[in-house]
Design a protein that fits this description.
8-stranded antiparallel beta barrel; alpha+beta
Length: 205
């Protein structure tokens, strides 16, 4: 999630600064500026702005230590990587009639400048998001990762653990280490809590 207005302003500013620098390098006498100088200046400004735009969307957005980057443009942290944690569910196993113990999960979050996806693995299923995004409360500045997913159980458990869709809303907790915690609910009328902590900034599969 990013601030499009601020990003556009920065692109325009870079273009103007580049144009002015080119003109100053081309001639020290403003009265001697030619149409050719102006055209070259515009071309240079366009090229530099495009390079910045490409580099920002590819790499720069990830580094929040760069001055003015966050929250002026990028409004949420970079969550890309491998996460581990637990899933606590109120689901009752129909074979035993018992509730389940907290389930260990591994999550792979793939984030770019404009998108994010969530993939969660347990020993019984894989959940993959098909809609995902961020929610930022303008009053409290709290941040949430929200996504809707399809959960597909492995064949040996599908008889009592059918495929289903669900939605999760995880709060982004910025403390000593980055954490995610929040609720999920499914079409089979189960609910629970997901807790995650990042173990690597890379997708470790």
């Amino acid at each position: 999630m990013y601030n499009q207005d601020n990003y556009n302003k920065i692109l325009v500013t870079i273009g103007i600064i580049t144009f002015c620098i080119f003109i100053l390098l081309a001639t020290s006498d403003i009265t001697q500026i030619t149409i050719r100088n102006v055209i070259k200046g515009i071309s240079s400004a366009t090229f530099v702005t495009f390079i910045f735009h490409f580099a920002f969307k590819k790499w720069i957005w990830q580094y929040h230590w760069i001055p003015l980057l966050n929250p002026l443009i990028v409004m949420v942290p970079n969550l890309h990587g491998t996460w581990e944690g637990t899933l606590n569910s109120n689901w009752i196993n129909p074979e035993t009639g018992m509730s389940v113990e907290p389930i260990k999960i591994v999550a792979y979050l793939r984030q770019t400048f404009v998108s994010i996806s969530v993939e969660i693995h347990t020993d019984k299923m894989i959940s993959t998001s098909y809609l995902a995004g961020f929610r930022v409360d303008s009053n409290t500045q709290s941040q949430e990762l929200c996504y809707t997913y399809t959960s597909k159980a492995f064949s040996d458990t599908i008889s009592y653990n059918p495929w289903h869709d669900g939605t999760a809303k995880l709060g982004i907790l910025n403390g000593d280490s980055l954490k995610l915690k929040g609720d999920y609910w499914t079409l089979r009328k189960t609910t629970g809590i997901i807790e995650l902590q990042r173990t690597s900034k890379k997708i470790m599969r």
